[in-house]
């Protein structure tokens, strides 16, 4: 069984390492070894054992009839999309770790794979090594999934944990995370929530069975979370976590990515550092949580190689995935209901006038001249209107 890797970066080299280290056990499970035959990359990798396998033109893989399984670990939509499409059309199975590609082109690539009687798999695209995609597609297909809440970005969860543990401010924690290699040199996709947005778009597409456009999901990152917010969070016994959520609303879903103040009773409260977790509520299952290493070389490679083994066992068969290209219109995010924590320099008279009865004031002198309070549950749109009447709002964070 011959395979190829497109993109010999962190994850691609992890896949090569996994095929080498677990060569025998994989051979036993598949019935024959999976041998790496070609590696596509722009670089040469002089002196690396992989060097003789390096090719620079993806058509070298397309035109190699021996290669049955192709791993895509390049990242980004293009040229990954062009290359993956060509592989599927040439009758090769593909597995990818690329959430940008899956969120944008997943439904189409699933259709193309089906038309060519091959498989397009993407377990590693959400939650790294956590087997959440396969669980949603097989173990939980007897359930209606009513709610998903995930900590699906390791970088931001690490940063939130460090800010809470050390009382440090955002910029200092980000610099330290970059120095330790936990955050990218350009951390925009993580800290602005774009990475988590694509992941919840993928999970929602799978449970809804049709294409969710990630651009429709209201997405806030963690850049506006300060050390003072964390002090307020501690005062009310909660932790700030970047959550990606999806809730069934009638025949569609309401999705959001934002920092939330998480209650200790919520199972996501204890998910710390670079770990990921996805909490799922099925109408039959009730609650289930999938927890583990959500990013990094080997955890992600574990999921990719798991897909390769699954593919190797279904070489002559397309394993159906229900994810149609027809776009799902998401529910109006203005109707989502939350309790909101608010920090403001407005006086209590103004706050009571805007929000009326039921506001809980936080008895803490964290920032002089500032008041912190929690609203009763209300729709997002009603909150925006009421908060819009205040003039001194410093920050607001939803409760979960
Ligand atoms: N940058 C991502 C994270 C990598 O921090 O979780 C995994 O998708």
Task: Characterise the protein shown here.
- With 400 residues, the chain is α/β, with parallel strands linked by helices.
- 36% of the residues lie in helices and 24% in strands.
- It is built from 14 helices and 19 strands.
- The chain has helices spanning 10-21, 23-30, 59-62, 80-89, 99-115, 133-139, 154-166, 170-179, 188-191, 194-208, 227-235, 297-312, 348-355, 380-389; strands spanning 2-6, 35-40, 54-55, 67-72, 93-96, 120-121, 145-151, 210-211, 239-249, 252-262, 275-282, 286-293, 324-327, 337-338, 340-344, 360-361, 371-374, 378-379, 393-399.
- The protein has a 9-stranded mixed beta sheet with strand order 12-11-7-9-10-19-15-17-16. The protein has a 6-stranded parallel beta sheet with strand order 3-2-1-4-5-6, with helices on both faces.
- β11 (275-282) and β12 form a beta hairpin.
- α1 packs across α12 (297-312) and α4 (80-89) runs parallel beside α5 (99-115).
- The longest helix has 17 residues, at 99-115.
- It is elongated, with a radius of gyration of 23 Å.
- The protein starts with a strand and ends with a strand.
- The model has no long low-confidence stretch (mean pLDDT 97).
- The structure holds L-homoserine (HSE).
- The site of L-homoserine has 8 residues, from α7.
Write the SSE topology.
Blueprint: E1 2-6, H1 10-21, H2 23-30, E2 35-40, E3 54-55, H3 59-62, E4 67-72, H4 80-89, E5 93-96, H5 99-115, E6 120-121, H6 133-139, E7 145-151, H7 154-166, H8 170-179, H9 188-191, H10 194-208, E8 210-211, H11 227-235, E9 239-249, E10 252-262, E11 275-282, E12 286-293, H12 297-312, E13 324-327, E14 337-338, E15 340-344, H13 348-355, E16 360-361, E17 371-374, E18 378-379, H14 380-389, E19 393-399
Parallel strand pairs: 1-2, 1-4, 2-3, 4-5, 5-6, 8-13, 10-19
Antiparallel strand pairs: 7-9, 7-11, 9-10, 11-12, 14-18, 15-17, 15-19, 16-17
Helix pairs in contact: 1-12, 4-5, 5-10, 7-8
The structure holds L-homoserine.
């Amino acid at each position: 069984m011959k395979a190829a890797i497109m993109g010999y970066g962190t994850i691609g080299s992890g896949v090569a390492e996994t095929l080498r280290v677990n060569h025998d056990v994989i051979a036993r499970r598949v019935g024959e070894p999976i041998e790496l035959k070609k590696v596509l990359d722009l670089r040469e990798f002089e002196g690396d054992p992989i060097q003789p396998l390096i090719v620079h033109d993806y058509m070298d893989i397309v035109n190699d009839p021996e290669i049955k399984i192709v791993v895509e670990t390049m990242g980004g939509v293009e040229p990954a999309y062009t290359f993956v499409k060509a592989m599927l059309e040439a009758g090769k199975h593909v597995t990818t770790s690329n959430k940008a590609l899956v969120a944008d082109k997943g439904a189409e690539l699933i259709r193309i794979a089906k038309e060519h009687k091959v498989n397009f798999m993407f377990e590693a695209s959400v939650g790294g090594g956590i087997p959440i995609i396969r669980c949603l597609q097989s173990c939980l297909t007897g359930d209606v999934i009513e709610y998903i809440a995930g900590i699906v970005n390791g970088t931001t969860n690490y940063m939130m944990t460090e800010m809470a543990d050390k009382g440090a401010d955002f910029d200092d924690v980000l610099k330290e995370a970059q120095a330790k290699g936990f955050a990218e040199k350009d951390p925009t996709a993580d800290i602005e929530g774009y990475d988590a947005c694509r992941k919840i778009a993928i999970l929602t597409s799978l449970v809804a069975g049709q294409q969710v456009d990630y651009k429709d999901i209201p997405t806030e990152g963690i850049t506006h979370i300060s050390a003072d917010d964390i002090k307020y969070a501690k005062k009310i016994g909660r932790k700030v976590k970047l959550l990606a959520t999806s809730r069934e609303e009638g025949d569609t879903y309401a999705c959001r990515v934002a920092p939330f103040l998480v209650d200790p009773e919520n199972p996501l409260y204890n998910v710390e550092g670079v770990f990921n977790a996805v909490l799922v509520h099925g109408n039959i299952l009730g609650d289930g949580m999938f927890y583990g290493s959500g990013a990094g070389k080997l955890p992600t490679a574990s999921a990719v190689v798991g897909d390769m083994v699954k593919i190797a066992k279904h070489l002559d068969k397309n394993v159906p995935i229900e994810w149609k290209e027809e776009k799902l219109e998401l529910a109006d995010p203005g109707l989502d209901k939350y309790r909101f924590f608010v920090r403001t320099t407005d006086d209590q008279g103004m706050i009571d006038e805007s929000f009326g009865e039921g506001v809980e004031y936080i008895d803490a002198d964290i920032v002089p001249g500032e008041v912190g309070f929690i609203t009763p549950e209300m729709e997002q749109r009603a909150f925006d209107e009421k908060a819009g009447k205040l003039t001194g709002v410093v920050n607001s964070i939803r409760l979960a």
